[in-house]
Sequence to fold (225 residues):
Amino acid sequence: MEDAEAREFSKKILTIQEEERHRISRDLHDEIGQFSVSLGSALNVIEKEITKRNLDTALRVIKDAKTLLADTANKIRTLFIDLRPAELDMLGLPSVLRELFSHYTKSYPLNIKFKENIGSIHIKDEVAITLYRVIQEAFNNIVKHAKAKNVKIDLLLKAGEINFTIEDDGIGFNSEEFFREANVDKLGLRGMRERVDLLNGKFFLQSKLRAGTKINVTFPIIEEV
Ligand SMILES: Nc1ncnc2c1ncn2[C@@H]1O[C@H](COP(=O)(O)OP(=O)(O)OP(=O)(O)O)[C@@H](O)[C@H]1O
Ligand SMILES: [Mg+2]
Fold:
């Protein structure tokens, strides 16, 4: 890599990291902020109802607050899983992904089908981490926007490349319009594409309103020698 190219590369990585931190801090801020406000007002209601000896009403509000707490804890757990693709080098990508998918099927009404033929073949770290990040953001989007029932993931070695696809049967969106417009608040898909570009991978996204969303990523180099 030339000097200027290397500098450009580091700059891009820093930008992606900053955007990611920005997104996580915004999500944490939103979750914790909403939770504190709702819990504060629930506690006020409970106090008032107990003072008035309306115990049934107080108990009902306590029950609602417990549900709110469970939901928030779940969302924050998801954010923490987002922060660390920890066991990637120890367990390998397929196992780490199975863990991630099992978290999602436990937390959301999603049916996930995962097909892979990687087994224990070692994928270059930077490629594995990029794929993991792409999958995380794809899932963030699926639970945030797609209203999907089924998600299909393929991670396949074929013809000397690694070929990854994630497809949902949700509401879809107008992807051409999205990539045409500059939108500083929506960084997920652009960050995904950027990461894949940085490693000379290919990124395709196909989505149409009411027809689901499909992301395909391929990388040429797969095994470390
Ligand atoms: N799987 C999907 N199903 C339906 N709509 C989607 C899906 N993925 C993305 N979108 C749409 O594309 C937009 C852009 O997604 P992107 O991940 O870039 O931003 P975001 O999720 O809105 O925000 P951020 O990822 O920065 O938190 C979303 O706002 C949503 O409208
Ligand atoms: Mg997103």
The chain has two domains: 3-82, 91-219. The radius of gyration is 21 Å.
